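Hello, quick one for you while I still have it in my head. A protein chain has come my way and I'm curious about its shape. I'm sending you its amino acid sequence along with the backbone structure tokens. I'd be grateful if you could look everything over and explain what you see. Here's the protein in full, and shout if anything looks odd to you:
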Amino acid sequence: MRGDVVEPTDTASPDYYHRVVDCQWACPAHTNVPGYIRLIAQGRDTEAYLLNRESNVFPGILGRTCDRPCEPACRRTRVDGEPVAICRLKRVAADLADDVRASLAPLPLSTNGKRVALIGAGPASLTVANDLAPLGYELTLFERYDRAGGLMRTNIPSFRLPEEVLDDETDVILERGVDARFDTPVTSLRALRETGYDAVFVGVGAPRGKELELPGRHDAPDNVHVGIDWLESVAFGHVDTIGERVLIIGVGNTAMDCCRTARRLGGRDIKVMARRPRDYFKASPWELEDAEEEGVEIVVNHAPTRFVVEGGRLTAMEFEVLEWDEGARHSRVLETLTVPCDDVILAIGQENAFPWIERDLGLEFDEWGMPVVDTTTFGSTLPDVFFGGDAAWGPKNIIWAVAHGHQAAISIDLFLRGLPLADRPTPGSTLVSQKMGSAASTATCRPTSPRACASSATPASTSAPCSVSPSRPTAPRPNSARGCARRPSTPTRRSSSRRPCPRPVG
């Protein structure tokens, strides 16, 4: 709007058509939400899974762990106050789909001679591998652990993300010609670049938990734990018990994983201690609900001041009880009290760590020790080094890492073909009926993969939307797509022996 003049709608831009599908636009990977819900309603679970996979790569994983930015944007909230169960429906499609390996884009008979190193086997690196493998790149993945998944494996408890689901969706990618070198941490970026790789992608996550340096912090080290390190120890079987009285400091999603894990390891009196009121929590509302349903107490307006250690043993923690002003910007102390405990878990955030990147390579870091990364191309100040996921701008959800991986893959492909990174493919549109139950697809607004800009591939999108075409209505199934309560949700691992979907999907 300019003054009192309303600007005309720019219908020449595909973004106009994409934004009108609110849930799809809100998803960082722009997953085709209406399209896959329609397919689920028709009982076409494998096709729904494949449509999901085109953009978010890990439907089974994200159907259990996604932060769901699509649901607050869902238009259904304007009707009855609650969104469609978009995330859980994604899980339905993943659990009921057949094996999809035969339906993925075919791999070329020979490589193109370009070598790409992927550092870290988390969602960002795996997404890059997923997108570049069909283009013939020689992909080498370096991972310090013995299996793929990154922080999805070490920091998400198995009761939320079963190991078989994680293995299935990561193996599908690794089986597509990726040279996976597990138990092989990269200790020097300089040495790696000197081995002849044409491009390097860094997707190592944010592997270091933040500390809470208060009096008494190191006086009882066996009973004060850093959240992500503790979850990692649980995941690998190094920790299998905890005290009965447990305090969790912090109130993000990692804190929710810690408190629910502590409950399963023997904790009886578990409290999550938060400095601010509930409206300012970082944890997702459904994560808070799950924790409270399991008997975890959420305590607000308590700021920790010291660890109480007696005779070398942690016995309590001291807190200031706060009263906040409107907006929770300023507080005053009402009183000081101690809360008895046997263990404390610190879940106050995560940080990046790049000790293996030499500072004299020409790769620029900012004042916080983060690499300077272009927000569009995901390139660094070294032309052959790219970043994505938590390694680029700090901790975010898995779906953001996937979105980063798609864009980084586009940049790597452009870079290795000698094309400007700014000349990115435009997203396309296929506009057909949005009526639920339609046999046709809906508007597509996913990040264009490198296949769309590779000279050897058929373009996957067009620069302008096509005209609206009629579609043949199909009667919806009785168990509609409003939610997954009426659909079976027993996890079913998709094995290679199951019937593949006949429709090839890129």
Observations:
- The first strand starts at residue 115 and ends at 119.
